[in-house]
Amino acid sequence: MEETDRYRAPALDKGLDILELLAEYPDGLTRAEIVKALGRGQSEIYRMLERLVARQYVMRSPGGDRHALSLKLFALAHRHPPVDRLVTQALPLMDLYAREAEQSCHLGMYDRGNVRIVAQVPGPGAWGLSIRQGACVSLLDTGSGHVLLACQGDERRQQMLAEHSATEGEVQLPRDELEQTLVSIRQLGYKQRDSLQSFGVTDISCPILDPEGHAMAVLTSPYIRRIDRHVGPSLDEARALLIRTAQALSVNQQAEGKDKA
Predict the structure, then answer these.
(1) Residue 259: per-residue pLDDT
(2) Under 8 Å CB-to-CB from 187, ≥6 apart: which residues?
(3) Are 131 and 142 contacting, i.e. CB atoms less than 8 angstroms apart?
(4) Are residues 192 and 161 both part of a single domain?
(5) pLDDT confidence of 35, banded at 50, 70, 90?
(6) Arithmetic mean of pLDDT over the chain
(7) 41 and 118 part of one domain
(8) How many CB atoms lie within 10 A of CB 68?
(9) Residue spans of beta strands (DSSP E) within 122-190
(10) Where are the alpha helices (DSSP H) in 39-125?
């Protein structure tokens, strides 16, 4: 028997299946569509949906025929103290970076085998590239993922790699290339390379370190160079600003850790 099957809770599994399904459909689904997608009986889906609506995890349309996720899960996630504290501290510094570098930036944290974007600040101009808050990006082909992997102990890094599942469009990197990349990040203290997702973008990623010197989060800026008459900060200047921002956040986290000790 696999470890995941040892302690089964069928009712809980049904509820989670419904929530995970609805997360893929912003406009919601009818009860019949949920039943068909999950391959379960009408009655069991009806009872579970009624409870999820009563607990306000799912909203029913005014006509009563469609069901969609509410914002309750989002609100619960943002009440998680470590994430909430870090985001609260990070946003003013991220906003300062965005204005000084004239680039967007986003904050990522490890989440079940990949990287979850927990905060993002757009650049101040009329256009730019930004990653949607709440998005999941790959652990293995992004600067954010590589920095999080590089700045861990060996045991934790192997655990993260074992938990990884491929994301849509993920670029497969040979293991030896990945290992060399992680070594380089530990030596430099950051990662900078052309994006593997978008042309014309240079990703700069810097770790935010906890009191033990491990990356608890990563700050990334997808740098885009202007080619019109506007002269903005160079790539080197933006990198220096991002490193300064990440170091300031690391100092905050380490001071907080000492206070708790």
Answers:
(1) 59
(2) none
(3) no
(4) yes
(5) very high
(6) 89
(7) no
(8) 15
(9) 136-137
(10) 42-54, 72-77, 81-101
pLDDT tens figures, 221-252: 999 998 888 889 999 999 999 999 999 999 88
Q: How many CB atoms lie within 10 A of CB 185?
A: 23
Q: Which two tokens stand for residue 167?
A: 């994301």
Question: What integer pLDDT is reported at residue 44 of this predicted model?
Answer: 86
By DSSP bridging, strand 114-121 and strand 136-137 are antiparallel
- Helix and strand counts by DSSP (H, E) for the chain: 10, 8
CATH of the domain at 29: 1.10.10.10
pLDDT at 120: 96
What predicted TM-score, i.e. pTM, was given to this entire model?
A: 0.73
Confidence of residue 1 (pLDDT cuts 50, 70, 90): very low
Domain residue limits at 166: 78-260
* 50-to-20, 32, 236, 246, 252 alpha-carbon distances in Å: 16, 14, 55, 45, 44
**Pair of tokens at residue 95:** 């906003």
Which CATH number do you get for residue 242? 3.30.450.40
How many domains does the chain contain in total?
2
